[in-house]
Amino acid sequence: MHWNYFLALEHDLDVLSRYVEFCPANLSVFSLELAHLLFAAASEVDVLAKCLCQIFAPASPRENITHYRPILLAQLTALPTTEISVPRYGLKFCPWDNWATAAGPNPNWWKSYNNVKHERNVFFQEATLQNALNALGALLILNFHFYRFTLSPPGPHPPRSTTRELQPESKLLRLPEDHYDSYLLV
């Protein structure tokens, strides 16, 4: 269910790429469609983060991102440095990089999601391509880890084994290449 929802959002993002060129010059572009993608992706990040926290620390509070952070970072130490790429457009980013230091703030895209959600009249310009890409990238990473720990038999599964199970494969956003099988054509 979570993977299919990610793929549906990624498809919407791909359709958007026909109207807005995904390039550094356009990362600050904002729109209603980008707000929709930011809301949907960040809301699903919240759902999956809560699910992962239930797996990792079932007795711990998990009411918001402040509660999720120490639980996720204890188990997913590479989360802040996990890079997402958009190969078709030559873009790379780390959606969770704000969490690289213990005192770092929550991700910028998360703050913008909350700003636009609660005060759209003031912060609508934060519904940007950059924030939508980061929210979808964060969702891809959490999907990967959720399935890494929940596939049968119970995980954690190796990265390639996990992405092999996530079918159909994502078409626009990519985890690091060492998470995928590579094929040599002769």
Description of the structure:
- There is one protein chain.
- The chain is mainly alpha-helical.
- The protein has one domain (2-179).
- Helices cover 51% and strands 3% of the residues.
- The chain contains 7 helices and 2 strands; from the N terminus they run H-H-H-E-E-H-H-H-H.
- It has helices at 2-16, 32-56, 65-75, 108-118, 120-123, 129-150, 159-165; strands spanning 84-86, 91-93.
- The protein has a two-stranded antiparallel sheet.
- A hairpin with a 4-residue loop joins strand 1 (84-86) and strand 2 (91-93).
- Helix 1 (2-16) packs antiparallel against helix 2 (32-56), helix 1 packs antiparallel against helix 6 (129-150) and helix 2 runs parallel beside helix 6.
- The longest helix is centred in the first third of the chain and has 25 residues, at 32-56.
- The chain starts with a helix and ends in a 21-residue tail after the last helix.
